[in-house]
Amino acid sequence: MVPLGYTAFIIDVFVRSIVGWKVSNRMNIDMVMAALNQAIADRNNPKDVIHRSDRGVQYLSIRYTDKMADSGVITSVGTRVIHMIMHWLKRLMGFIKQR
User: Fold this and answer.
1) What is d(CA 4, CA 6) in angstroms, rounded to the nearest whole number?
2) Dihedral sign of CA atoms 23, 39, 50, 58 in order
3) What is the pLDDT along the chain (99 residues), one digit of tens a residue?
4) In this structure, what DSSP letter does residue 12 have?
């Protein structure tokens, strides 16, 4: 049996591509920081991009928000666009489960 875990994705919605991800057995700040760092490096330190997330405590942590501010990433917390992203993620997870 495969142990359960958590996955953090950073998605570039404009190009519909995952630019950062991390899998862990715990949902914590270190996991989402790793995904964020990968995304920032993958996109060569982009400026004035918008990071949209839900209100999860790991996404609102001081370490996470400071890293985004230092990198020039604009934060946006809420639920309006989350539904579109969740639909895309559900399709992605269905694909991954088939593999």
Assistant:
1) 7
2) positive
3) 456 688 888 888 777 788 899 999 988 899 999 999 999 998 888 777 877 777 778 888 899 889 988 988 888 776 555 666 666 777 777 777 666
4) E
- Rounded to the nearest 5 degrees, what angle is found at the Cα of 61, between the Cα atoms of 11 and 30? 65
CA 66/CA 60 separation, integer angstroms: 10
Torsion of CA 70, 71, 72, 75, to 10 degrees: -90
Q: Measured at the alpha carbon of residue 4, what is the angle toward residues 79 and 99, in degrees to the nearest 5?
A: 85
- Which token pair is 16? 């519909």
Q: Is the pTM of this model over 0.90?
A: no
